[in-house]
Amino acid sequence: MRRFRSFAAPYALIAPYGLHFLVIVAFPVVFSLILTFHQWNLLSPMKWIGGVNFLNLLSDPLFWKSLWNTFRFLVIHVPLQVGTALVLAEILNQRLRAKGFFRAVFFLPVVISGVVVTILWKQLYASESGIINTLLLSLGLGRVEWLTDPLIAMPAIAIMATWKNVGLYVILLLAGLQSIPRQVYEAATIDGASRLDQFLRITVPMLNPILLTVVILSTINGFSLFIEPYVMTAGGPLNSTLSMNLYIYRQAFAFYKMGYAATLGLVLAGMIFAVVAVQRRLIEKEF
Amino acid sequence: MPLCAVCLVLAGCRSASRVDHLTYWCATNTFEIEFARQVVTEWNQDTTHIPVDFQPVPAGQSSEEVILAAIVGKTTPDIYSNIWPGVVEQYREAGAVIPLDQFSDFDSALASRLPPGLIEGFRSPNGQFYQFPWKGNPLMLYYNAGMLGGSGISSVPDTYEEFLSLGPRIAVDLNGDEHPDQWLLDPNILSEWWQRFFDFYTFSIAATGGETLILNNLPQLDRPETFQVMSFFRQGYSSGYFPRSIFQEDIFLKGKVAFHVSGPWMVPYLERYRTEDLHYGITTLPLPAESSEPVHTYGDPKSIVIFSTTYHPKQAWEFVKFFTSEANDRRLLEVTNQLPLRRNLVSDPYFVAYFNEHPKLRIFAEQIPYIVATDHTIYLQEIFDIISQEFDAACIHQAKPLDDAISDMQARVSTLIERESLASKAGRK
């Protein structure tokens, strides 16, 4: 009996996690893979259609458009997010009054619901009555069609997403900055290094592990772009803000094409994996 | 083991409870809940009737989504009263709803209720009826009488040409920033598929004299009327008469737009919130050319269905007939200000008093015989998504020539129907 207990105890202890993994992780992943080879609208029985979903995907212009839009968003959003976070963290790392207050202020948008933030920014961006355009007009500048101009809508969403999430990365980078020993900067100052040299040659390399985390998290967040275009633009104008996630959502829950949505999801997962792998290699090599 | 026993007992209870009563889901708005409460109370007072329990459709992003989840989970009610005909075909194909023409008095009930021209619009492509038409919300043109009068316009336009000719007088810059501060018409520019029911589809129905978009599984989008409708919107946007903006306020209520397309639900809203200087009227949609024929429009109808999970199809059908009786149709008007789909609604003495008290709603009631529903296809949402994309490109942003947009629309919808049909056939094999 004692032998049985000592044999069974470890399995009993990992059983809750094992169950959680099987139900919440493994089952959806395997089911999604199965779905990619089926046509299923939730209502009727699943129909095996082989590789038709993958063939359709290759000839679907909206898939390519949504892929392009997602990368366009990433190219604007990730550098903007990481750069802004780095600058703000560096400022907060100085001897500053009311540092705690500013930390809280930067972090506040992170804890506010994404939908609330998006609705708020939709009002700010409103071309006729929004505060931003009212301000621009009062300065004698022209009106900007923030959400209805196909060239501007995605950058406008990227700015909003940066505002929403930057606080989290500021906190992460600040923790990294505070772990760099002061003596390194003092030695560099004695050697005559300027502030910029110190930032580029000491701060950035020594922040490498945190920076890598921030870039990867920011990229994964960028790939999951959904709420902002869903609430603000519905993917328009001219599908210029149709992200991969929004497209997957539409296929699944507007058109009930579960098989095709699963195929798109699989491609997106592969894409995230590939981009993060490349980023990791580049950042580790660079610094 | 005890858990299994509890589940079995609960399942048994559920089955037993469904055996001796009907469940009915109504829409979630306050007025319809009150209407449902009154109807169900009266039904239940008659002890010869099977009792009905009612509740608003459970919370969800849309009622269609909730019904879909209920169908998948086999937890549908016996009766649901607010179904959009555009999704009935999907439910029919899944075997989730029962044909109502199996009941011997269905044809007479339908014929005595509906204006004759509307009946076929609710028939499924397989020839049967799976829904009982209940109410309709004809889309019509609201106009700001004060703004038109102030601009020297004495009559509402009947044709696209007349309509657009009002643009220079209405869409003007009032504050000197070289940007119009009021507009002629305010269609919603968001490219969600369902938005096109309120501009492209409604105007297409009017222009074609009541035609829908699909005939014998083939799209009819490359017809001259599509060109006329899209040309109208393209001209409106390119001239700046229609705003290419997303507004955070109701610009009709604020007196910033001369015309607005909406249904009867807007009348009580305007009566409640309008300022004293907002005087409005309601008229039919403009047409490509003068016509003496009645103007058709999209009716945004809602129907009643009986789900196949019911144990009591006959009693459920009896309830549906009671629910749509003349007395309850008048109750629907009085409690909700919504229009029952009923023949001679305006001239029937039983309803005259109501319309004398609500003259604005009489205009919508007069439009009821000329409403059109939707095509019966399981691809309706996707078809409208394609239309929305081409409309966005050609009309709102003028990024594509009209002819190209229309031929692409026709080709893409044809491909969609063909491809999905082939995939379905492949699946069946």
Task: Quickly list its features.
heterodimer, A: mainly alpha, MetI-like fold, two-stranded antiparallel sheet, 75% helix, globular, B: 429 residues, alpha/beta, D-Maltodextrin-Binding Protein, domain 2, 6-stranded mixed beta sheet, 4-stranded mixed beta sheet, 17 helices, 12% strand, disordered N terminus
Give a verbal description of the structure:
The complex is a heterodimer of chains A (287) and B (429). Chain A is mainly α. Chain A has a single domain, classed as MetI-like fold. Chain A is built from 13 helices and two strands. Chain A has helices spanning 2-35, 52-58, 61-92, 99-111, 114-125, 131-138, 153-178, 182-190, 195-206, 208-223, 227-232, 244-254, 258-286, and strands at residues 38-39, 47-48. The termini of chain A are far apart. The model of chain A has no long low-confidence stretch (mean pLDDT 90). Chain B is of the alpha/beta class. The two termini of chain B are 41 Å apart. A six-stranded mixed beta sheet of chain B has the order 2-1-3-12-4-13. Chain B has helices at 2-19, 30-45, 63-72, 85-93, 106-113, 145-150, 160-165, 167-170, 200-208, 224-238, 266-273, 313-323, 326-336, 349-357, 359-367, 380-396, 402-428, and strands spanning 22-26, 52-56, 79-83, 132-136, 140-144, 183-185, 214-215, 218-219, 257-262, 280-283, 297-298, 302-306, 339-340, 371-372. In chain B, helix 16 runs antiparallel to helix 17. In chain B, a hairpin with a 2-residue loop joins strand 7 (214-215) and strand 8. The longest helix of chain B is centred in the C-terminal third of the chain and has 27 residues, at 402-428. Residues 1-17 of chain B have low confidence and may be disordered. Chain B folds into two domains: 3-138 and 300-372, D-Maltodextrin-Binding Protein, domain 2, CATH 3.40.190.10; 140-298 and 378-421, D-Maltodextrin-Binding Protein, domain 2 (3-Layer(aba) Sandwich). Chain B is built from 17 helices and 14 strands.
